[in-house]
Amino acid sequence: MKLAPSLLAADLARLADQAALVEDIVDLLHFDVMDGHFVSNLTFGPPVCNALRRHTTLPLDIHLMIDRPATYIPRFEVEPADCITVHVESADPPEQTLEYIRDLGCLAGITMRPATSLQTVLPFLGQVDRVLVMSVDPGFGGQEFNPVSLERIAKLREAIGQRGVTVSVDGGIGKGNIAQVVRAGADIIVAGSAVFGQPDPRAAVRELREAVG
Ligand code: DX5
Ligand code: ZN
Fold first, then answer.
1. Is 170 considered catalytic here?
2. In the Cβ-directed half-sphere of 176, how many Cα atoms lie within 13 Å?
3. Are 97 and 124 in contact (CB under 8 A)?
4. Per-residue confidence (pLDDT) for residue 14, from 0 to 100
5. Disulfide engineering: 196 pairs with which of 9, 24, 121, 202, CB 3.0-4.6 Å?
6. Which atom in ligand 1 lies closest to the alpha carbon of residue 135?
7. Residue 139, C-beta contacts closer than 8 angstroms, at least 6 positions apart
8. Atom from ligand 1 closest to the CA of residue 6
9. Distance between first and last Cα of the chain
10. Residue 191 in contact with ligand 1 by CB distance below 6 A
11. Mean pLDDT over the full length of the chain
12. DSSP E strands: which ranges in 40-121?
């Protein structure tokens, strides 16, 4: 299992320090981009992401919760191991945005809201490196894990078959349910509140890993 702490729950005025704090004990950094349209919350975009890119060696896992990803994807300055994930519900079609991501030379991912059918992402399995299963409604950290996701992870795994597509799961994951999510078939666990929302994020990472066993 790879762990991707979400910076949404970090001290946003000290992003580089927060990344450095966990740099040697996590696998990726999850970066939630929100536009106030696709979801009713606003965070950060390419300028902040590009600035952070120069301060960490961790791969960035960029989750675009925005209506018009096509406009903003070309503005990301990414490394080959970084991944940009688009929502299947965004106004710009994934056929186009996944190609824009490829043009940047990084990994590409697709995701969907918990209420969106899993079937909507399956046609893109040949064009992505990663599928992100949202286990909460996108927009905010600290929400409760939707158990329906466990079934979706298993179904997705089955649909992926032998393809080299990784499954990541995002929302409401903590030490009480992480083992269940990994057992259901997650390769990458995104956790915000359970890492940066804790008084000691390094201890929190250790506890999450211990909970998986
Ligand atoms: C929610 C974001 C998540 C969020 C997860 O829209 O996509 O990445 O940071 O936060 P927790 O782990 O607190 O549910
Ligand atoms: Zn996210």
1. yes
2. 6
3. no
4. 98
5. 9
6. 14
7. 34, 39, 40, 41, 65
8. 9
9. 10
10. yes
11. 98
12. 60-65, 83-87, 107-112
Taking Cα atoms as reference points, which of 76, 81, 34, 85 lies closest to residue 51? 76
Residue 111 token pair: 């995701």
Rounded alpha-carbon distances, angstroms, from residue 165 to 47, 113, 126, 185, 210: 29, 19, 9, 12, 26
Question: Six-digit token pair at 180?
Answer: 């269940």
Say whether 27 is catalytic: no
Each residue of 179-206: pLDDT tens digit?
999 999 999 999 999 999 999 999 999 9
Token pair for residue 142? 């600290």
- Tens of pLDDT along 74-121? 999 999 999 999 999 999 999 999 999 999 999 999 999 999 999 999
Q: How far apart are CA 32 and CA 45, in angstroms?
A: 9
Q: Quote the domain boundaries for residue 175.
A: 2-212
* Cα 26 to averaged position of ligand 2 atoms, centre (Å): 16
Q: Phi-psi category of 192—alpha, beta or left, where left has phi over 0 and alpha has psi -120 to 50?
A: alpha
Residue pair 6/30 in contact (Cβ under 8 Å)? The answer is: yes
Q: Is the CB of 12 under 6 A from ligand 1?
A: no
State the CB neighbour count (10 A cutoff) for residue 199: 6
What pLDDT is recorded for position 106?
98
Domain count of the fold of the chain: 1
Ligand 1 proximity of 86 Cβ (cutoff 6 Å): no
143 lines ligand 1 (CB under 6 A): yes
Residue 122 CB coordination number (10 Å): 16
Which CATH number characterizes residue 156's domain?
3.20.20.70
